[in-house]
Design a protein that fits this description.
The chain has one domain (12-144). 29% of the residues lie in helices and 40% in strands. It is built from four helices and eight strands, in the order H-H-E-E-E-H-E-E-E-E-E-H. The chain has helices spanning 6-12, 15-36, 71-80, 141-144; strands spanning 41-42, 45-56, 67-68, 85-96, 102-106, 111-119, 122-129, 132-140. The strands form two sheets. It has a four-stranded antiparallel β-sheet. It has a four-stranded antiparallel β-sheet with strand order 5-6-7-8. It is globular, with a radius of gyration of 16 Å.
């Protein structure tokens, strides 16, 4: 997890790298939720697994505890993104009940996701980066099951 302050990043010229890291992580999170959420509709509940994934051509940062992403997920991401390596930063399971139920999950110090069940067949996914809304997507529950 990169927790460098803005001032520290500016001094070392890392501001762009941290920003790119965050954008890539946020995008990978959205794709992971869309492609790899594991919904199981039991009595109207939607059971999901949300993963924050980091894509890179290099190795994970020294001293990090990031785990390589499972091959099945890595292969799916590799079809969409150009990176060679994918690391799991955080994983969380969530249950979304019926229509109108909303859950907000903190995936890292800078990344949050909000899941809202609009109706029986539609899920709204909002990504927040550093407290600001960065992306909103509506996805059919049926598409998540694939």
């Amino acid at each position: 997890m990169i927790t460098a302050s803005t001032q520290f990043c500016s001094v070392l010229g890392l501001r762009k790298r941290v920003s790119r890291f965050f954008r890539a992580s946020a995008l990978a999170t959205l794709i992971t939720v869309c492609l790899f959420a594991l919904p199981v509709c039991i009595a109207g509940d939607l059971h999901m697994q949300v993963q924050l994934v980091w894509g890179t051509d290099g190795a994970p940062p020294a001293g990090s505890k990031y785990q390589p992403l499972e091959a099945q997920f890595k292969n799916k991401l590799a079809r969409v993104f150009k990176w060679k390596n994918y690391y799991l930063i955080h994983e969380q399971k969530v249950v979304i009940a019926g229509q109108g139920d909303e859950k907000r999950l903190k995936l890292s110090s800078k990344c949050e996701i909000e899941l809202k069940r609009l109706d029986d067949s539609t899920l709204e996914i909002k990504l927040f980066g550093e407290g600001r809304l960065t992306k909103t997507v509506r996805q059919s529950v049926q598409a998540l099951e694939k």
